[in-house]
Amino acid sequence: MASSESSCSATSGPLPYTLLKKVQQSADSWWLRFALPPPRRWLADDTTLPTCIKVEYPDGTDDNGQPKRLAKSYSPVSHPAAEGIVELVVKAYPLRPGGGVGAYLCSLEPGQTMHAEIKGKRMMHGSAAVAQRWQSVGLVAGGTGIAPLLQIARILLEDPDDHSAVYLLSINRREQDILMRQEIERLATKHTERFTVTYSLTGPPPAGWTGQTGRGSMDMVSAALPRPTGDGKTMVLVCGTDGFVATWGGPVGRAPKGADGFKGAKVQGPLLGFLSEAGFGAAEVFKY
Question: C-alpha angle with apex 75: 201 to 93, nearest 5 degrees?
Answer without folding.
Answer: 60
